[in-house]
Amino acid sequence: MKDRILIVGAGLVGSLWAVLLAKRGYQVEVFELRNDPRKAGFKGGRSINLAMSDRGWKAMERAGIKDTIRQQAIPMRGRKMHDTAGQLTFQPYGDQDQAIYSVSRGGLNIELIDIADQYDNLKFHFGYKCLGVVAEEAKAHFEHRDTGEHLTVNADRIFGTDGAFSAVRRSLMKALPRFNYSQSFLDYGYKELHIPPTTDGKHALDPNALHIWPRGQFMMIALPNVDGSFTGTLFLAYEGQTPAFDQLNTDEEIMAFFQTYFADAIPLIPNLLEEFRENPTSSLITIRCSPWRYEDKVLIMGDASHAIVPFYGQGMNSGFEDCTLLDELIDAHDGNWAEIIEAFNHSRIKDANAIADLALRNFIEMRDKVADPKFLLRKEIAAHFNKIYPEFLPLYSQVTFSHIPYSEALEEGHAQDALFEEILVLDGIEHNWKDNPEVDRIFRKWMQGRPVLATS
Amino acid sequence: MKDRILIVGAGLVGSLWAVLLAKRGYQVEVFELRNDPRKAGFKGGRSINLAMSDRGWKAMERAGIKDTIRQQAIPMRGRKMHDTAGQLTFQPYGDQDQAIYSVSRGGLNIELIDIADQYDNLKFHFGYKCLGVVAEEAKAHFEHRDTGEHLTVNADRIFGTDGAFSAVRRSLMKALPRFNYSQSFLDYGYKELHIPPTTDGKHALDPNALHIWPRGQFMMIALPNVDGSFTGTLFLAYEGQTPAFDQLNTDEEIMAFFQTYFADAIPLIPNLLEEFRENPTSSLITIRCSPWRYEDKVLIMGDASHAIVPFYGQGMNSGFEDCTLLDELIDAHDGNWAEIIEAFNHSRIKDANAIADLALRNFIEMRDKVADPKFLLRKEIAAHFNKIYPEFLPLYSQVTFSHIPYSEALEEGHAQDALFEEILVLDGIEHNWKDNPEVDRIFRKWMQGRPVLATS
């Protein structure tokens, strides 16, 4: 008889993990706070689209829905920067055949739930709020949000995939004697703004790019949706700096702000003032903790154990990679859960911390550096190195287009920083970097000291 | 009519803060989980003595009990290191007239409660567990630990001085929209071991020193008590390293460990095996959070907002300094609490983070570096600089014998690290540092770049 598995949370990670476990024949029960999104529809307004990259696709493949999702995904081959004069520049993410993909969170979640629901050994229970788990007994308490019914569920193992404000994590925090935990908010909030399709139903901007309006201390971005619209997101300090959300109160202040910084976007957002006033300002949290498990009985995954800021587009991807890695560990340890969970807990936390760091660092890159000539020059030289020496992979590609552990990518990123610090100070480098023997010498010497990275 | 003030927690910081507020005529109610220590006695076994340094004494002076406490305090003028062969070396903390003072936590707490209790406008309530506060209404819920009685207390302002596992902080965490919080445990635990007086009632070791048995990855220390005993504390990894607590299970293993590393301490600890087995292994936590206040209604202080590891002897001192600074702010802002609390929250958090960092860093210094000749050489040269240029204050002195904000001391510490990195690599520095023109040149140049620190 296979283990009874309880999954708390049927978001993206929870429903994917449910599919992978059901496939293997485990008895899976999934409890979710929200109502069934297939009946209730998805609440929009926040995080309506996400960027799927290689780590995510690998997991989709494992779940058998790569092709289905691919059909609803829009490839974004690079960043398109909008300067204050409305001038556009394009910066590819990688090779011409490489892209990240704008996907709908709601659509993807429904797809995963649908697939999971086909298994007889898997059952969803919607509308149940988790009140906490009793870790040492692998049981969880729930309350139905409408009926108030209380329910206790016993299992052999519990997986907490209940997001950044995880109830399962809260229980672990009490049950474990030395639980390291940090929650850290940026002083920035974000607000979503809608860019509808043009009157003839087309995208109002190039749909095959992630649009960025980098403005130094703040920025706006826009990702394409399949219906021809874009979801724009303004990232701005809550207060204290100028400009900041708390400085933008009257219609005049809001319009003046957009006219100064995002003039070319104003005609694209017809309900700008209304949306600015009525859409919520959401916060940006980073969560780190350790350990992630209670013996072999409880494990937290995805945002529940490592919520990150969205600036590297790796929140969903890292959660999906949790599922891939665990699924691989089931094979490697022949279903011995004590070993599987211990191995995952041992190796994955440093990767989660690394992508948390990378995501925070990328905020500065997106809002500021992408408009910096030195940064663009570095990108160009890095792409050139990569063409000559394919084993040289720029940091962005390692994170986005490979399966190299995040912690190794971060380390590699630091090493690449050191390399370019040497190169970018060379005289006249802006013009003479091609076929420059000194650049070549520095690069070759640097490459000799680098480890060979596993790119599979 | 003066504000009604509620203080949650009558530990060291809570009872001192109660004294300072009562002195100013506020209506003060203090609720404490434990029973009245004047009747119940103090539970020993943990944290029985603390090291009072200048920041603490300043606060004692404000409370009017400096002389009383001074009589029960034992000056420790330096570190006395015990090597594995039992050889002793002494390292002064500062000038000959400078010392840190071993004081009894219990005795000091009783003294503070006694003083506070003399005010008619101050009332203690013992045995009440805080269940949480309603921050926006400045009210708190309590339950009596014996009778189970529930009580709600309304105030104008609440101060949470309820320690590292603060219930007030837990409520702030829920009430504030973006509360940054981290709790982080060392992989080390500590265990107290008792060194009784000799048969003729004397201290078994020099009482005017803090004794350290530095062993690289772990250490033991001992602080003197007025009754002729010492409290020894072993700091050791919980697990995974050798040696570690989880490797020491049988009597043979424990004795072999002590014989190898602490042979000279064995005869001093007559109940070694019994105490090792029966005394708890306690954990070492660092807590950082921000903000510390809810409007002008709730403020957390001391360990409740900044618990640190004990290795710089600044846990109590930093909590007492919170009281001093707030008391000074009451004068500076003429009793305007919105301003006082905001100013404190604005300036003090970085200092709390700095002393947290310094305390973590000092663990490595105590267990490892104090036995390192380069480190001792640096101490010697620093003391020499200080004699010639009194404005050069070694980091330890800044933290321990001054009132310089911790964050400035930490910054100065980094700068001093850079200075000594330059000096200690000079050829033959061990022998030729005195009257060495190159040392002098490096030092003078370095001094030119330093800010003048406020030492008062």
- The whole-number mean of residue pLDDT values of chain A reads 94
CATH class of the largest domain in chain A: Alpha Beta
How many DSSP-defined strands of chain A? 19
Rg over alpha carbons of chain A: 23 Å
Enumerate the strands of the largest sheet of chain A in spatial order, edge to edge or round the barrel.
Answer: 6-5-14-15-16-13-17
Key phrases:
homodimer; 456 residues; alpha/beta; FAD/NAD(P)-binding domain; Alpha-Beta Plaits; 3 domains; seven-stranded mixed beta sheet; six-stranded mixed beta sheet; 19 strands; 40% helix; globular
Describe the structure.
The structure is a homodimer of 456-residue chains. With 456 residues, the first copy, chain A, is of the alpha/beta class. Chain A has three domains: 4-75 and 101-182 and 287-362, 3-Layer(bba) Sandwich (FAD/NAD(P)-binding domain), CATH 3.50.50.60; 184-283, 2-Layer Sandwich (Alpha-Beta Plaits), CATH 3.30.70; 372-448, no CATH class. The first copy, chain A, has 16 helices and 19 strands. At the A-B interface, strand 13 of A face strand 13 of B.
